[in-house]
Write a structure and sequence with these properties.
six-stranded mixed sheet; about 35% helix; four-stranded antiparallel sheet; alpha/beta; about 270 residues
């Protein structure tokens, strides 16, 4: 039986008077690809960011490799915020790829990728460079190592961001709608890299609007709505026989919008 990498129990989060996460339970095992889908504003990205404590959750527990994320228990058994050092140590084991690319504009692609390993992990430059070149080759950017982010397309920048996350040798990769800021013709090149990671057995949690990716690559799909997990299961069940009416409604709307528009005058009649 594969070990559980990330476990969430009754996770809650509020912004002021607005509760955006309303008690979410989830287990993700080693090597699993989980896609999180749902309408905008359903809490998907907030939940993902709580997993590595970029967002502080207000209730429940999140564990990574059976260790509490963001909190520790004091002598009375009460949860108190963990030290910044311990939080950083857990984050270092999770790669995070955002909607925006967040590359340092004043650094070359290569320098962006080696920055984390050298500064955080204190690795030698020659070792970091050797690994970075291999990763950039893997994501199709071997000819761009000396380029600066402003000279790259959005798809290239996102692939560089993926290489940068991988350079930290993470055990889990978190993707927060990694293709949402891209032009449609650039989406495929990023998804291809993610498919390659999945085929290599990387544990991945992906918040996405790319239904084809969720259907074809994910081991399980979780549907979220109004801060709750509506249902979770294999893609074949979620996409062909959802158990919840809200999931069916959402998929019908999204898939209909994604379908190509019918050709005008298909017979070619003038």
């Amino acid at each position: 039986m594969k070990p559980v990498m990330i476990s969430a129990r009754n996770v809650q989060k509020s912004f002021g008077a607005t509760q955006v996460l309303k008690g979410i339970d989830l287990d993700v095992v080693k090597g699993e690809v989980l896609a999180i889908i749902g309408p905008s504003g359903s809490g998907k990205s907030t939940f993902l960011r709580c997993m590595n404590f970029l967002e502080e959750y207000d209730g429940g527990e999140i564990r990574f490799d059976d260790r509490l994320v963001g909190y520790r228990k004091n002598t009375n058994g009460k949860l108190v915020k963990d030290s910044a050092v311990h939080v950083a140590a857990i984050r270092a084991r999770m790669g995070m790829v955002f909607q925006s690319f967040n590359l340092f504009p004043h650094m070359s692609v290569l320098d962006n990728v080696i920055e984390g390993p050298m500064i955080v992990q204190r690795r030698k430059r020659e070792d970091a460079v050797r690994q970075a070149k291999g990763l950039l080759d893997r994501v199709g950017l071997s000819t761009k190592i000396d380029a600066f982010p402003e000279t790259l397309s959005g798809g290239q920048q996102q692939r560089a961001a993926i290489a940068r996350a991988l350079a930290m040798n993470p055990e889990v990769m978190l993707f927060d709608e990694p293709t949402s800021a891209l032009d449609p013709e650039l989406v495929g090149e990023v998804l291809d890299v993610m498919r390659s990671l999945a085929s290599d057995g990387m544990t991945m949690i992906v918040v996405t609007h790319e239904m084809a990716f969720a259907r074809d690559v994910a081991d399980r799909v979780m549907m979220m709505d109004h801060g709750k997990s509506v249902e979770i299961g294999p893609p074949r069940d979620i996409f062909t026989n959802p158990s919840h009416a809200r999931t069916e409604e959402f998929l019908q709307r999204v898939l209909q919008r994604a379908a190509p528009a019918p050709l005008k005058n298909p017979e070619g009649v003038l």
